[in-house]
Specification:
The structure is a single chain. By secondary structure, the chain is mainly beta. The protein has one domain (about 1-115): Sandwich (Jelly Rolls). Helix content is about 5%, strand content about 55%. It has one helix at about 5-10; strands at about 1-5, 30-40, 40-50, 55-60, 65-70, 70-75, 80-85, 90, 100, 105-115. α1 links the parallel β1 and β2 (about 30-40). The longest helix is centred in the N-terminal third of the chain and has 5 residues, at about 5-10. The two termini are about 25 Å apart. It comes from Thermanaeromonas toyohensis ToBE. InterPro entries: Cupin_2, RmlC-like_jellyroll, RmlC_Cupin_sf. This is Cupin domain-containing protein. Pfam families: Cupin_2.
Length: about 120
């Protein structure tokens, strides 16, 4: 997974309008991420998943909100699959096993709240 943690890029988003879908690009066979906010209270990260890419089942100690910006994804939470497309969202509850698989190229905004 590629990460762009460039703080100057993040600061350039402050107090200005941005098109989220344009802030992260697809790379064939990869998952690309760009952290927009990284604070003690939580993170906001953009992801671009190439078709067929995914994250294997894992758990996180915090609730996470997934907002699909483009494309379609299958998200499995505690064994139950959900298909989401552009404009839809789901909360992945803390401590529940979850996994993601891109059904086609897809972009999401992930908001994780730590407190």
């Amino acid at each position: 997974m590629h990460h762009n943690m460039d703080q100057s890029a993040t600061q350039s988003l402050e107090a200005r309008v941005a098109n989220l879908r344009e802030l992260v690009s697809y790379q064939e066979g990869s998952i690309v991420s760009r952290t927009l906010i990284d604070k003690k209270a939580g993170t906001v990260t953009l992801f671009a998943f190439a078709a067929g890419q995914g994250l294997s089942e894992h758990t996180a100690p915090y609730d996470a909100l997934v907002q699909v910006l483009e494309g379609e994804v299958e998200i499995t939470i505690a064994g139950q699959p959900f298909r989401l497309k552009s404009g839809e969202a789901i909360i992945m509850p803390a401590n529940q096993p979850h996994a993601l698989r891109a059904l086609d190229n897809f972009k999401m905004l992930l908001t994780m709240i730590r407190s």
